[in-house]
Design brief:
By secondary structure, this protein is an all-alpha fold. It has one domain. It contains nine helices and no strands. Helix 1 packs across helix 7, helix 2 packs across helix 4 and helix 8 runs antiparallel to helix 9. The radius of gyration is 15 Å and the shape is globular.
């Protein structure tokens, strides 16, 4: 639940979307469940389950489908058209926020930073694996995304009460 904890920390920059982000943070990796894995691409499998079986909020489903630069991995798997055809992207600030939460949390829920998280993913899957290659390709966008969130957090802290 570390990803959801990160969502609660940045909630002040999301206003009415804070609960939506927290729900997506809790559910973002549900597609890893063996019972749900149909394509082997967890963002798509999870989003389909949430839409078709759980009848989850459409915006939560879309965030799960596109979390952490999923479109790049979908492209590598030949699933980008399916992903984008079934699930529209939410606003950039919400996609950035979920990426921030995911990439600042280790698999066991411990806080980390995006550089160490990318290195952990590449190391776990292997640098030449599909996921290792994808995560390195996505790294600049992951870093930019998390930087945009940090900029919004800093700006919010500078605002007078």
């Amino acid at each position: 639940m570390g990803v959801a904890e990160r969502a609660r920390i940045i909630a002040p920059i999301l206003d009415e979307d804070a609960e939506l982000l927290e729900a997506a943070a809790v559910l973002h990796d549900i597609g890893y469940s063996p019972d749900l894995a149909k394509t082997g691409f967890h963002p798509l499998d999870g989003a389909r389950y949430l839409r078709d079986v759980a009848n989850a909020d459409e915006r939560v489903v879309n965030l799960v489908a596109h979390h952490s630069c999923a479109w790049m991995e979908a492209e590598a798997r030949g699933l980008r058209e399916e992903l984008e055809g079934e699930f529209p992207r939410e606003s950039a600030h919400l996609n950035d926020a979920l990426c921030f939460c995911d990439m600042n949390t280790t698999p066991d829920g411990t806080p980390t930073n995006p550089i160490d998280r990318v290195n952990e993913i590449a190391g776990r899957y292997g640098p030449d694996s599909l996921i290792g290659t994808f995560i390195r390709r996505a790294e600049p966008e992951i870093l930019a995304s998390t930087s945009r969130v940090l900029e919004r957090v800093a700006a919010a802290k500078r605002q007078p009460m």
